[in-house]
Amino acid sequence: MKKKANKRIPCECLDFVEASHRQQVYPLIYCHMKILGHLNNKKVKQAVSLSSKVIPEILYVYDFKRNVFVNKGYTADDVVKDVTEFPISFLRYDLSHFPQLQILIRSKGKYDYLIVVMSHLLADGEGFLQYLYLLAELYNGKQLDLKMKNQREISFLLENICILPETEQTKIHKDFSVPALRAKERGNLLICVTKEISKSEMERIHQKAALLHVTLNDIFMTAYARVIARIQNIDVVVLPCPADLRKFYPGSKYLTVANMTGIYRRITVENPLKYEFTSTLQQLHIEMLLQKSRRRCFIGIKKLNKIFHYIPYGILSYVIRAAYKTLPVSYTNFGIINHEKISFKECFVQNCFMTGTYRIAPDFQLSISTFRETCTLNCTLIGNKQDERNGQYILEQVKHEILAWINN
To answer: Is the previous residue joined to 362 through a cis bond, with omega within 30 degrees of 0?
Structure first.
């Protein structure tokens, strides 16, 4: 029996949003690494222990009734595990009984295969990356800055934010939703499907994006929308697109291992197959620019932050599920994983990608991350072999759309 301490840390409002949706979307994020060489287990544990001085929640469990992180006396020994196979139980573990961080290390020949699992109650994708960078620094011998503080409260991001009206595209298609890409009940296998876009291919994509003054995110979303339209035989595709709110506060030097993600709830693409890829891309790019300039990703967050500590959690959770509905077809771009910051002494990280949680049917999410200029398309599913084949097909089609465009 572990010694119980009384210390508790309350959650923040966007943590609570993740907790409220846990029955459908269990709040976990994953980072997968293939490492040439072998990590020093003792040094990994030391790095976890040091990082917990700044981010103590990594060793805490989460009390879903009181919505607080609770110290149950767990240590780095309960976080870092050497395994011969990746256990299913820790790929989707219970955050109310185990620490908010798990690190699984599997050695095979010359390589270590690493899966780091982070609670989405504690951090979003960018916050997870910040933690991984800190962990790598500490592993490599950097002294912990005892003055360092982790900023989890989001009020500073909401100052002077003015949210403007929704776009015409959003108004016109307000009630439209994309049909699910999966059947409702399809097995209980944990499936992780990936597809890579190589460094040379990414270089050509960058070149064409610069020529058209669009973002890589615009390109990925356009390809995804066109694949969805073809599979479902529909003329309109509406996708949610997460947005890192930190980007609206340039120059911040805070460590923010926290949930600071808003969402453009409805990015509408009309007639994606009627036009060539470039025309669809330009349409989506304009819509993204409009929503960014209107700060639409902040919708509801200011109000939620104001009322969060004044409304009973049970009522607030119901309101959140009604206002922030999870859609069966979604998208997230974790962005670039900095290979210079994901680095361990006497080892070489060959491959690294991030994924969202394992999705219960009928949900499907395309996840994207880039490491060493190689892009990994990914989906994580709970389902059966047919789900795996369907997921692979969707990823292949998204890649095909992009490569066909750059080769045109």
So the answer is: yes
β-pair partners for 192: 380
- Token pair 């009928």: residue: 362
Q: For the chain, how far is it from start to end, CA to CA, in angstroms? A: 64
Secondary structure (3-state) at 253: coil
Cα 293 from chain centroid (whole Å) = 23
Rounded to the nearest 5 degrees, what angle is found at the Cα of 167, between the Cα atoms of 165 and 168?
125
Backbone angles phi, psi at 305, to 5 degrees: -65, -35
Phi, psi of 115 (to 5 degrees): -120, 120
Segments of the chain with pLDDT less than 70: 1-6, 251
- Are the beta carbons of 71 and 5 closer than 8 angstroms? yes
Phi, then psi, of 206 in degrees rounded to 5: -60, -45
Judging by beta carbons within 10 Å of its beta carbon (0-12, 13-18, 19+), is residue 249 exposed, middle or buried? middle
Q: How many CA atoms lie within 13 A of 255 on its CB side?
A: 18
**Helices 41-51 and 125-139, axial angle in degrees (round to 10):** 120
Give pLDDT, residue 183: 87
Report residue 359: phi and psi, to 5°. Answer: -90, 130
How far is 233 from 220, CA to CA, in rounded Å?
20
Asked if residues 272 and 137 have their Cβ atoms less than 8 Å apart, the reply is no
The angle formed by the CA atoms of residues 45, 51 and 52, to the nearest 5 degrees, is 90
State both tokens at 109: 């020949």
> What is residue 3's three-state secondary structure?
coil
Q: Which residues contact 407 (CB under 8 A, 6 or more apart)?
A: none
Structure tokens at 152: 């989890």
| CA gap 285, 172 in Å, rounded | 18
Domain architecture of the chain: domains with CATH = 8-139 (3.30.559.10), 165-406 (3.30.559.30)
Per residue in 92-101, pLDDT tens? Answer: 899 999 999 9
Predicted confidence (pLDDT) per residue in 289-308, tens digit: 999 999 999 999 999 999 99
Residues pairing with 364 in the sheet: 329
CA dihedral angle for residue 246, residue 356, residue 81, residue 10, rounded to 10 degrees: 50
Q: Tell me what pLDDT residue 186 has.
A: 75
Spatial separation of the C-alpha atoms in residues 184 and 361, rounded to whole Å? 5
The whole-number pLDDT of residue 2 equals: 47
